[in-house]
């Protein structure tokens, strides 16, 4: 049986329908991102890594002039007295602490004893199909369901079956099943997608 090309107008409509069908099936349009399991993301969050906006208390034993409260700046570094800028972004607290001690031991202090603790975590972000999206203060033990509640809850257009999560240093635009139980980490960006039916 011979095949005939579709008229230009009809071809466009067919292509549009196919594209919409693909978007509806994926739930996130043409670029669904990477699918990750909540368990894999929970495992990735076992070691907390510092990020821009985290506030730290650095204490150098016996050196009050070198101790104090500091914030990780836009460059990902912390500016400390005497030793200057030390990279912090993406490092566990223990690794940053050791870097500070090494820098101080390099011609400044003999066997410096340094402690570092986080006094205030960077915020989280919730947007998409929520009533009042934006930036929210992180609290320890926060779950996805709590973050959505902070943002005013779902809109009537929300697809509640999954979220799109960006976790700094771990994953970008990951599609994660929305059980509500996933623990939120500082800096998490949670997008609630729109349903297409």
Can you tag this structure with a few keywords?
disordered N terminus; single chain; 3-stranded antiparallel beta sheet; elongated; 11 strands; 2 domains; 197 residues; Outer membrane lipoprotein wza fold like; wza like fold; alpha+beta; 27% strand; 4 helices
Q: How much beta, percentage-wise?
A: 25-35%
Continuous helix count: 4
Q: In what order do the strands lie side by side in the largest sheet? A: 1-10-9-11-7-8
Low-confidence stretches: 1-31
Number of E strands: 11
N→C terminal distance: 37 Å
User: Average pLDDT across residues?
Assistant: 84
* CATH H-tier superfamily of the largest domain: Outer membrane lipoprotein wza domain like
Mass-distribution shape? elongated
- As a percent range, the share of helical residues equals 10-25%
Give the class-level CATH name of the largest domain.
Alpha Beta
- Total discrete domains: 2
Strand-pairing-aware structural class: alpha+beta
